[in-house]
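Handout, section B. The chain below has 59 residues.
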Amino acid sequence: MWTWVEEDEVDAGDRPGTTTSDAQRLVELERETRELRRSNAILRSASAFFAAELDRPQR
């Protein structure tokens, strides 16, 4: 059977599986998760850097 026919049947609810809209949303959420994890890592590094700067004795 052709892939597009199977996708159409899933989207119509005639066949079990992940719908096209759900699959697109999943891709968007995975992209957003990657971006947020990257941002968190950058913020963690920055906060560690500035915390170390604050702990250093002032001249």
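Note. The two ends are 75 Å apart (CA to CA). Compare this with the example in section A.
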